[in-house]
Amino acid sequence: MIETRGLRFRYPAGGDLAFADLAVPQGGRLVLRGPSGAGKSTWLALAAGLLTPGAGSIAVAGQPLQALRPAERDRWRGRHLGFLPQKLHLSDALTVQENLALPFYAAGLPVDRAAIARVLDALGVAPLAGRRPQHLSGGQAQRVALARAVLLSPRVLLADEPTASLDDAAADAALRVLDESASRCGATLAVATHDRRVLQAFPGAVVHEIGPGSAVASAAAP
Ligand SMILES: Nc1ncnc2c1ncn2[C@@H]1O[C@H](COP(=O)(O)OP(=O)(O)OP(=O)(O)O)[C@@H](O)[C@H]1O
């Protein structure tokens, strides 16, 4: 589940973002829509525990994030959350396969090379396992980052524009991997997107509009 109440956030240099309350049951699908700059990526970063709200509360997979100290939140994220951010943060110093070993190290688990091979294959990028990310196309790199997000069967999967650089066939594969991964582990899946293909892929999703009337930008501090 993901449940928010009275959630607000303000960047040091920016206006106040206030988000409408929402509740998605565990295992549900959430699509976040809204104009560019409305706050979709910020909402995902709050749900990932990467940003701390200025006010309000957010509970993810039964865990109120405000109850965790920063180090506990990092551990919780490493074990229970899969995140595909807009900026992919793949390391060019490592091969694709080595990048995909990192979530296992971070969670203190043995590296499951068969699982890495399976997910790369499902996304159509298995032949790229030995390459470094700087030698991948944007869409290939996006699929590698998606593989990293789903590898540890997280309880919650967050994806920021997961189909942005993908043609229809690659977008289909990516959405299938997100959907199947979430279904397999009963995870809640939240996707921020402008892409109609995502809504078509998740017909039962809760659709949450972020923008005028739902997320309110104002100059007031929380
Ligand atoms: N690091 C930052 N510092 C200051 N302001 C920021 C920062 N990141 C985002 N913002 C501002 O916060 C608001 C929300 O940004 P956010 O990236 O969450 O929107 P978005 O809906 O995801 O946009 P897009 O669809 O273009 O990705 C915008 O006005 C943006 O300019």
TrEMBL record:
<dbReference type="InterPro" id="IPR003593">
    <property type="entry name" value="AAA+_ATPase"/>
</dbReference>
<keyword id="KW-0067">ATP-binding</keyword>
<dbReference type="InterPro" id="IPR015854">
    <property type="entry name" value="ABC_transpr_LolD-like"/>
</dbReference>
<dbReference type="Pfam" id="PF00005">
    <property type="entry name" value="ABC_tran"/>
</dbReference>
<keyword id="KW-0547">Nucleotide-binding</keyword>
<keyword id="KW-1003">Cell membrane</keyword>
<dbReference type="InterPro" id="IPR027417">
    <property type="entry name" value="P-loop_NTPase"/>
</dbReference>
<feature type="domain" description="ABC transporter">
    <location>
        <begin position="2"/>
        <end position="221"/>
    </location>
</feature>
<protein>
    <submittedName>
        <fullName>Candidate ABC transporter, ATP-binding component</fullName>
    </submittedName>
</protein>
<dbReference type="GO" id="GO:0016887">
    <property type="term" value="F:ATP hydrolysis activity"/>
</dbReference>
<dbReference type="InterPro" id="IPR003439">
    <property type="entry name" value="ABC_transporter-like_ATP-bd"/>
</dbReference>
<dbReference type="GO" id="GO:0005524">
    <property type="term" value="F:ATP binding"/>
</dbReference>
<keyword id="KW-0472">Membrane</keyword>
<dbReference type="InterPro" id="IPR017871">
    <property type="entry name" value="ABC_transporter-like_CS"/>
</dbReference>
<dbReference type="GO" id="GO:0022857">
    <property type="term" value="F:transmembrane transporter activity"/>
</dbReference>
<dbReference type="GO" id="GO:0005886">
    <property type="term" value="C:plasma membrane"/>
</dbReference>
